[in-house]
Amino acid sequence: MEIQITGFVVHSNNPDSSHSHQLFLTSWDGRPVNVHVHPFQGDTSFDVGHFHHYVGITEPAPSGVPHVHNYHAQTSFNDQHKHMIRGTTGPAIPLAGGGHYHYFEGYTTVDGRIPHAHRYSGNTGDEQG
User: Fold this and answer.
1) Sequential DSSP letters for 7-21
2) Confidence bin at 30 (pLDDT 50/70/90)
3) Distance CA 59, CA 56 (A)
4) Residue pair 21/10 in contact by the 8 Å Cβ criterion
5) Residue 15: partners with Cβ closer than 8 Å, 6 or more residues away
6) pLDDT exceeds cutoff 60 at 17
7) CA-CA distance, 79 to 42, in Å (whole number)?
């Protein structure tokens, strides 16, 4: 079975040294695809005597088809430092009244006077777009 898709590729400006691109779908099986994003926020685990807050918006992904979202955010400045969070959500989880959300989890970058990372996890908000 073949499903025809169309879209466009955008060069990713990731701060790391890897070269990458992002693909945004504009049609799936001949039907137009809209893109959407999700808000997310939370607190990291409590480690080395403190925690951090984070808030952000996921990267866009197509609506109406199975998908995940990439995300990244900088944590709050606590105990004289901050961390970065970055990852990919799980698949869409339907909401009873329509829409959906995604689960996400991971570890922050390592930073601080005493080098450490924090664990984080949560659910995004409903789709926006």
Assistant:
1) EEEEE---SSS---E
2) confident
3) 10
4) yes
5) none
6) no
7) 18
- DSSP state, 103? E
Question: How far is 25 from 29, CA to CA, in rounded Å?
Answer: 11
- CA angle (124 as vertex; 25, 38 as ends), nearest 5: 40
Radius of gyration over alpha carbons of the chain, in Å?
Answer: 17
Say if residues 29 and 4 touch (Cβ distance below 8 Å). Answer: yes
Q: Model confidence over 60-101: pLDDT tens digits?
A: 888 878 899 999 999 999 999 999 999 999 999 999 999 999
Q: What is the DSSP letter of 125?
A: -
The CA-atom distances, in angstroms, between 109 and each of 11, 33, 53, 80, 117 are 24, 34, 14, 15, 6
Q: Which two tokens stand for residue 91?
A: 């698949």
The one-letter amino acid code at 26 reads: T
pTM above 0.85, yes or no: no
Residues counted in the chain: 129
Q: By 3-state DSSP, what share of the chain in percent is helix, strand and coil, each rounded to 5?
A: 0, 50, 50
For residues 111 and 103, give the distance between their C-alpha atoms in angstroms, rounded to a whole number: 25
